[in-house]
Design brief:
heterodimer; A: mainly beta; 7-stranded mixed β-sheet; 4-stranded antiparallel β-sheet; 11 strands; B: 113 residues; mainly beta; 6-stranded mixed β-sheet; 5-stranded antiparallel β-sheet
Chain lengths: 110, 113
């Protein structure tokens, strides 16, 4: 089944404790991206990647890092999480102008 | 600055009734407009895509329209069902090398029995 997977689905952590949210797609898509979704603000793009080893900032990249060492994986790294990064995160891959979203990761930073 | 505005912010209707959601955009140069449906706790799923030359496109009970001159789109839902309860997001993409879509904040639709 063609899909985008994310792990973990839920995470509660404390300020400053580094964490990684994994994202994987099995559709061989070149383009992948990360979004955060907050009440009243909608989806905002954090980072995107047009291919392996090619990444770029989206609208809200501060406090996040990404890497794209292989086509299928696009992890999101929070080196020192802060409470304002509490949010619902979505990974997506894109083909022909359609984005395929993962199930989401709900992150709480205390 | 590219922007996408959706209205209403929320909507409550009775099962079986029709409704129309609106999307106004200022994205330029325009490439395409997509409507996504997002069920609570899930990722958005594409309903339909509109390009510059298309005025109307249907997907079952969902019909999207596009007026590229006024930069407006609508999503019409016919004979609503309880499963239509969700957030509907309008996403507009500009032409160019980098793909950074502009998202609307969504319309939250609740269908009551």
């Amino acid at each position: 089944e063609a899909q985008v997977t994310q792990n973990p689905r839920y995470l509660i952590t404390v300020t400053g404790k580094k964490l990684t949210v994994t994202c994987s797609q099995n559709m061989n898509h070149e383009y992948m991206s990360w979004y955060r979704q907050d009440p009243g603000l909608g989806l905002r793009q954090i980072y995107y990647s047009m291919n392996v080893e090619v990444t770029d900032k989206g609208d809200v990249p501060e406090g996040y890092k990404v890497s794209r060492k292989e086509k299928r994986n696009f992890p999101l790294i929070l080196e020192s999480p802060s409470p304002n990064q509490t949010s619902l995160y979505f990974c997506a891959s894109r083909y022909d102008n359609e984005q395929f979203f993962g199930p989401g990761t709900r992150l709480t930073v205390l | 600055k590219n922007q996408v505005e959706q209205s209403p912010q929320s909507l409550i209707i009775l099962e079986g009734k029709n409704c129309t959601l609106q999307c106004n955009y200022t994205v330029s140069p325009f490439s395409n407009l997509r409507w996504y449906k997002q069920d609570t706790g899930r990722g958005p799923v594409s309903l339909t895509i509109m390009t510059f030359s298309e005025n109307t496109k249907s997907n079952g009970r969902y019909t999207a329209t596009l007026d590229a001159d006024t930069k407006q789109s609508s999503l019409h839902i016919t004979a609503s069902q309880l499963s239509d309860s969700a957030s509907y997001i309008c996403v507009v993409s500009a032409k160019g090398g980098s793909y950074i879509p502009t998202f609307g904040r969504g319309t939250s639709l609740i269908v009551h029995p």
